[in-house]
Amino acid sequence: MSKTILITGATDGIGLLTAQKLASAGHKLLVHGRSQSKLDKALSEIGGDCTGVLADFSDLNAVETMSTDVKSKTDQLDILINNAGVLKAPNTKTEAGYDLRFVVNLFAPYKLTHALLPIMPKDGRIVNLSSAAQSPVDPKAMRGEITLEDMEAYAQSKLALTVWSQETALFYDEGPAFIAVNPGSLLATKMVKEGFGIGGSDLSVGADILIEAALGPGFEHASGHYFDNDAGRFSPPHGAASNATHNAALLQTLQEVVDGTAETPPPRLI
After folding, report:
1. pTM value surpassing 0.90
2. CB under 8 Å to 37, separation ≥6 — which residues?
3. Is 110 a catalytic residue?
4. Half-sphere exposure of 130 (CA within 13 A, CB side)
5. C-alpha pair distances (Å), 180 with each of 18, 162, 199, 218, 225
6. SS3 category, 152
7. Which one of 110, 154, 172, 226 is the catalytic residue?
8. How many beta carbons lie within 10 A of that of residue 128, not counting itself?
9. Which site in 39, 77, 176, 267 is 20 to 30 Å from 117, CA atoms measured?
10. pLDDT by residue (tens digit) across 237-260?
């Protein structure tokens, strides 16, 4: 059965390959890119029933505009794959004063997901791209009050995304599902090349597990869980994710920064 699927960061790497595989299987794709030229190139490479949506995820206003664009293009979104991410950049501070890694890897998917939940069915799935790189989250770093090295900022943002998936799943016990996935370490992505100076391994390892998480029966009851593709199984994330005090501070800071409130009610579902 064909699904309507949005993939962020789909102009290269795992996102592009995942989109190509899903389009070839007959699904309706909405693919996100940061620049029109890259988006146009990706659309030509993906083919099938594929539509582009544009947003610079370092700008949360652009994320809001993109969510409106998505809702104008479809009445129902079955799957959201929050794939867009960043490790290094020439300037890691946004105009608003936040660390770029937290904005792109955490704030943007949080804002986009909550904006799109009203058009997601209860059997829908939100697949959040986690990582083997995870580190306890400092709310001061989330607020841009302290500066972190590249890998530490990335690792904190990825654990934060994983914790958000875990905790948000508790609100939506009837669905849609929130699933965090480490697609595999050191795959052949631009991020791996920039961060580690190596070519990386087969991207299909990552794309295939994202497709399985989005559509496969093995993830049907996986809401709130973390899948580690390096180990090939569901596993506990970093131990900090089981610390209630850590998680409460993380979620409160996330809501305060993005929503301006620490009490964001769950949106209405279709």
Report:
1. yes
2. none
3. no
4. 34
5. 16, 6, 25, 14, 6
6. helix
7. 154
8. 26
9. 39
10. 999 999 999 999 999 999 999 998
